[in-house]
Design a protein that fits this description.
By secondary structure, the chain is α/β, with parallel strands linked by helices. The chain has one domain: Alpha-Beta Barrel (TIM Barrel), CATH 3.20.20. It is built from ten helices and eight strands. It has an eight-stranded parallel beta sheet with strand order 1-2-3-4-5-6-7-8. α1 packs across α2, α3 packs across α4 and α7 packs across α8. It starts with 9 loop residues before the first strand and ends in a 17-residue tail after the last helix. The mean pLDDT is about 95.
Amino acid sequence: MTDSLPAVGLGTWQNTDPDQCARTVANALEMGYRHVDTARFYGNEEHVGEGIAAADVPREDAFLASKVHPEAEGAAYDEVYEGIEKSLSLLEVDALDLLYIHWPVGNYEAEETLAAFADLVDDGLVRHVGVSNFDRALVEEALEVLDVPLFANQVERHPLLPQEDLVAHAQGHDYDLVAYSPLGRGDALSLPAVEAVAEKHGVSPAQACLAWVTHPENVVAIPKATGEGHLRDNLGAADLELDAEDVERIDGVDRRERFVEREGAPWR
């Protein structure tokens, strides 16, 4: 299995209907997706696993990521191990390709929590480790503490929240920035800049938006979708090459909006 994440993967947040979730994952893999993202907190690991098993795609070809939530499951050393055993059981896989800390909240403590993550890699239960919703300072702390390489930081990124600082940090430290909500909950699709780039290339606003999100080195996206049409449309963004004018046009969006908020978030 390659360690390089594809530009566009599949997000599964809020995809909790058992049949729909399994069908979506299976359909996505069979149409060419190779990165599937879930979390214990989403309540759908079992159904994601069913979709992976149902797809006519070898397990080793599907990069599977999940997350430990410090408040829902706990992030103490033993709790991390208990959580991964539960996730592997629900997903019916032998190992995860990537495990994230979902949020830097609750009983997350960098040294203890990330020691467990590193030991999971040593034990062969996890191939790579990541963090999610971390700011630069928290990522730098993780880099100092971890005994294994940091593979990814998953954050909200779209034209209304470009996260230039985190993009630059990921590029400078050779880890991936994984963009969730890359369409800005749909709000980014009606931005004049996005619409203009889409019209120029004869593609959907979603493809134009995703192509912009993933244009920088070390940045990939995990849009969520369920219908085959949206799944195919999102995946097609990987083949769209924006020119400098396109990127500059969307870079010029000056409205700022964050859609995912919670108590304890590092930016609050």
